[in-house]
Specification:
The protein has 479 residues and is of the alpha/beta class. The chain has 9 helices and 37 strands. It binds uridine-diphosphate-N-acetylglucosamine and calcium ion.
Length: 479
């Protein structure tokens, strides 16, 4: 029976995964052992970042949607870095490929690990980060419905250069797959390419893997050769070829980033977010936005950031790993690892970092830095201040140029400031220090001792005025 959600629409995902479960186990293997020479980088190619996540992380996340029973990652060149970039994921099996002799050789390393496994194996190149989960599901469904030995994802590219070419009969049954560099000029005219995403009947693949030879231009063992030995093999075209672009060099990385950005912005604009001059804005796909928020030009939203509705963020701002409440304005500012509650105004030129937590209807103004500060509601720090390791109550007013001296050269100390307290301009609050509630700090004070509630503190030399005073060398005024 169809399962329906409250809106009455069929829960396709649940249905599909049930159907897949009935058809037997699916394991996933990601090929991530290569160096990626064409990147010209010390970092393994699959560890390069795209929209705040590594390439291999993106590939893995995409395949988790099919709920694989096993998740294998083939590592080799700087394998430790690849492992680190996947440390957030459980139940991964890392398979070492000590020498990188090609994608077929990488798949051969799976043989001892998948001994006795009888299901299907999805193999993905670690450098194909933009695949949609639905496309993988379609691949798997086609594979299982036709009981193929192998099924691979293909696309017709306007510029197929560099990709393996796929030749099929009229029924999408594969006749041959040839790497770009091994193609004749005539074969290169074929624009149907191998995406590097395959579904295999594992038992059949396991039989042909030992037969691979390195008899090709690169003298490598090609996984694509295994496909040539199997039958029946089908090709499934993706509708949107942008999904399957493989990242081999920095230009392709930039092209993939542009595709990802276009997807993310499309999604948020459809959901009711205004983006002004979208081309100048970047938004990681880990960011969440609410309707009726406006993102102004030159603004960059990164990591685990949430921006609630009615906000105006930018121009010229960077927000990372932060939560911004409703109707907040942030102008030309940097906010990292912090939280800002509703109706607060930040900037221009403010810097919030290190778990700054700002209350409702506050003002954090020009050239203000907040580090590890908790601020109550309706509290203002309007100009030229550094507040670090401090707790401020409600309706506090921090005068221009107030500084918390939080560091004694060895340790950091806290400053506590009670409700409705006001600091005069250019005060220095030497921590550890507690100012009670309703305290007034005279301008220019250097406060080193705690101040009880309802007090005025003046901590500076009293002004001295000497009427008629002149330098001794100066001529006396004529009387
Ligand atoms: C591969 C395909 C090509 C396809 C293209 C799609 C082969 C022989 N060719 O070419 O048909 O059109 O992908 O993007 O498979 N890797 C290892 N160990 C190795 C070599 C590679 O794990 O020894 C990994 C790499 O880290 C990478 C993936 O396999 O993630 C693909 O390798 P790459 O060298 O990029 O293959 P392509 O030349 O792009
Ligand atoms: Ca590639």
């Amino acid at each position: 029976m169809d399962e329906k959600d409250s809106a009455g629409t069929i829960k396709r995902g649940i249905l599909q995964s049930k159907r897949l479960a009935n058809k037997g186990m699916v394991a996933v293997a990601i090929l991530a052992a290569g160096r990626g020479t064409r990147m010209k980088s010390q970092l393994p190619k699959v560890c390069h970042a795209l929209g705040g996540r590594s390439l291999v992380e993106r590939v893995l996340i995409n395949c988790l949607s099919i709920e694989p029973s096993r998740r294998l990652v083939i590592i080799g060149y700087q394998g430790g870095l690849v492992k680190t970039s996947l440390k957030a994921f459980d139940n991964l099996e890392f398979v070492e490929q000590t020498e990188q002799l090609g994608t077929g050789h990488a798949a051969q390393q799976l043989l001892p690990h998948l001994e006795g496994f009888t299901g299907d194996l999805l193999v993905l190149n670690g450098d194909v980060p933009l695949l949609r989960p639905d496309t993988l599901k379609l691949l798997l469904e086609t594979h299982q419905a036709h009981q193929n030995a192998a099924t691979l994802l293909t696309a017709n590219l306007p510029n197929p250069q560099g990709y393996g070419r796929v030749f099929c009969d009229g029924q999408n049954h594969l006749t041959q797959i040839i790497e770009d560099r091994d193609c004749t000029t005539a074969q290169k005219q074929n624009r149907r390419i191998n995406a590097g995403v395959y579904c295999f009947n594992w038992s059949q693949l396991a039989k042909v893997l030992p037969q691979l030879t390195a008899d090709n231009d690169q003298q490598e063992y090609y996984l694509t050769d295994a496909v040539n030995y199997l039958s029946p093999v089908m090709a499934v075209d993706v509708e949107d070829y942008q999904e399957i672009i493989g990242i081999n060099d920095r230009k392709q990385l930039a092209a993939a980033d542009a595709i990802l950005q276009a997807r993310v912005k499309d999604k948020w604009m459809t959901a009711g977010v205004t983006l002004i001059e979208p081309n100048s804005i970047t938004i990681d796909d880990t960011v969440e936005l609410e309707p009726d928020t406006t993102i102004e030009p030159q603004t960059h939203l990164r990591g685990n950031t949430i921006i609630r509705s009615g906000c105006r963020i930018g121009p010229g701002s960077l927000i990372e790993n932060s939560e911004i409440g409703e109707n907040v304005k942030v102008l030309f500012s940097v906010v990292s690892d912090s939280a800002i509650a509703a109706h607060t105004r930040v900037g221009p030129y403010a810097h919030l970092r290190g778990h700054a937590t700002v209350g409702e209807a506050c003002r954090v103004g020009n050239f203000v830095e907040l580090k590890n500060v908790t601020m109550g509601d309706r509290t203002n720090v309007a100009h030229l201040s550094y507040l670090g390791d401090a707790t401020l109550g409600n309706q506090v007013n921090i005068g221009a140029g107030t500084i918390t001296a939080n560091y004694d050269g060895v340790r950091k100390h806290r400053t506590e400031i009670g409700d409705r307290t006001k600091t005069g301009s250019n005060s220095v609050l030497v921590a550890p220090l507690t100012l009670g509630e309703d305290v007034t700090v005279a301008a220019g004070s250097t406060v080193t001792e705690d101040v009880p509630s309802d007090s005025l503190v003046v901590a500076r030399a009293r002004q001295v005025v000497k009427p008629g005073w002149r330098l001794e060398t100066a001529p006396k005024p004529s009387s």
